[in-house]
Amino acid sequence: MNILILEDEELAARQTVDFLARAGLAPLAPPVLRSVAKALAWLETHPVPDLIFSDIELLDGNVFALYEQFRVTCPVIFTTAYDQFLLPAFRGNGIAYLLKPFDYAQFREALDKYQLLAGGPSTDAGASVLSPEVLRTLAQALRPSPGPQYKQRFSVRMRNGLYVLPVADVAYVQADAGVAFAVDAAGARYPLAGTLAEVERQLDPAHFGRLNRSELVNIAFVARVEAYFNNRLAVQLRTKPEAVLTTSAAQTPEFRRWLEG
Asked: Cα(224)–Cα(232) distance, rounded to whole angstroms?
């Protein structure tokens, strides 16, 4: 099968590839695209795949901006963190979706639905595609409210699958050897997909401020800020064990402005 994966979270994309291999449907690694722009360029220069696994929020925006520009004539299985109020729209148009975090049994069920549709005697090329009606329904349901939309939770690969980490539980984010880690109030560290700069763009700047080149802090966990040497600030956090982070001299003025709201 020719399969395309649209997913901006590296760990989630890796899980989809692993599940496809387990199902015997991806002998070669399928392409994984992380943005609307790259997906549009790929679709315009390649044959339409047999099946698309599509996240809803990509690095540069909502995936329905892609489907409005390019008419997809193959089935789409959505892999999304959105709640189940979208289920009727998906079901009514022969589109399956997987609510993150999902396991292999749920993944297999979605594949079985695709294969049933593909093998059905009355199914043609447009029977399970994104019709204009479902595009309008989904675009309306997902229409952003005024102002930018920020991430509400991270899906993090753990030993036994994906763990859902609410953004509100993240005390700070720290880059270590090129990997961004979310750290909660208990000091547990969770590896995130993307660089620190990419993670920062997904977080509400009213809640997360930059301390230095390698750290962001959640204002909800800031207990106290004190002057530190060389025009820096020591930021004490409400974590156990207590964490104390420091601003860089270059970032201190901007951090002071951020603290004042």
From this structure: 14
